[in-house]
Design goal:
- By secondary structure, this protein is of the alpha/beta class.
- It has 2 domains: about 130 residues, NAD(P)-binding Rossmann-like Domain (Rossmann fold), CATH 3.40.50; about 190 residues, NAD(P)-binding Rossmann-like Domain (Rossmann fold, 3-Layer(aba) Sandwich).
- The chain is about 35% helix and about 15% strand.
- The strands form 2 sheets. The chain has a 7-stranded parallel β-sheet, sandwiched between helices. Strands 2-1-3-4-5 form a 5-stranded parallel β-sheet.
- Helix 1 crosses helix 12.
- The longest helix has 21 residues.
- The structure holds nicotinamide-adenine-dinucleotide (NAD).
Amino acid sequence: MQVSVYSARPYDRVYLGRANHGARHRFIYLEGRLDEASAAAAAGSQAVCVFVNDHLDARVLTRLADAGVRLIVLRCAGFNNVDLEAAAALGLAVGRVPEYSPHSVAEHTVALILALNRKIHRAHARVREGNFALEGLLGFDLHGRTVGVIGTGTIGACFARIMAGFGCHLLAYDPKPNPACLALGARYVELSELLAGSDIISLHCPLNPRTHHLIDASALAGMKPGAMLINTSRGAVVDTRAVIAALKTGALGSLGIDVYEEEADLFFHDLSDEVIHDDVFARLLTFPNVVITGHQAFFTEDALAEIARITVANLDAYEERGAPLHAVSTERLVSP
Ligand code: NAD
């Protein structure tokens, strides 16, 4: 089948190429994002392959359907960027990669925690300048601290296991408690109790209408003073402006993010020669107690190989049986 691959980076070519045994599918790589203007470029393809910041609203989906596309395959787990009802109405099938390497994201989450706690970003810069003073680099032992995990699915559970290994106490919040987390000793509590009792709060829930700005001014006000907040889920789970206000007062002790509400115009591109026009993001960059990575938590060799393998399996299944192996349906909209 011919597949237009949007937001394609060099590594996508490498890993999709390797997974495409016998060159069964013909990949057309497009560097740009999928939007209303670029949808027409999919003409001649039966499928489009998209990533986290490709925006598939009803208008874009209509253009794709008009261009002859029948299938959308996401190279990611989250599907908040697809209007599933519109896709169903247009007869477009949607597939995703529900699980590739939860370790990739969980381990990156821990990297953000360790960097923030032990001020690795500042220490690295200092040492390169010949400054070996320790003032300002004071951290705390993770052992014995309380970590709050919001969303204890595949990634949240993997993260909880690592933190249990550090000797942390675990609080959890999820409408569907995970037996694996209970077995680790995690205590499921109301969100307010988790916020009030955690030294570190890490977000691993999907973005949906219920989780949009889950961490807002009132949630921040309910946190332990000086707590650390980590977001590797989706940017809009956090109200960035409210977080900036809490960082300014010191109510929030530190922030580590791999995702950002308005990341689509920033992340995955080299903008080092350009002016950043997003003043909210620019403000975040000024804090010494904020570490930001550009949506790279998934970015390991193992994860890319698995994403490509499952993406090709979705395409194979659609060709053979008329449905992707891991279909996303509108039923998921009503799940938590
Ligand atoms: P998952 O579906 O296995 O787990 C999500 C969990 O969140 C489920 O247990 C669900 O019950 C829970 N949940 C749903 N609504 C909730 C709510 N209102 N409050 C608390 N918990 C809620 O998903 P996963 O594979 O663990 O991935 C989690 C998220 O991580 C994805 O949705 C995606 O947005 C994000 N992600 C980010 C990256 C990255 O590179 N930064 C990579 C992969 C996934």
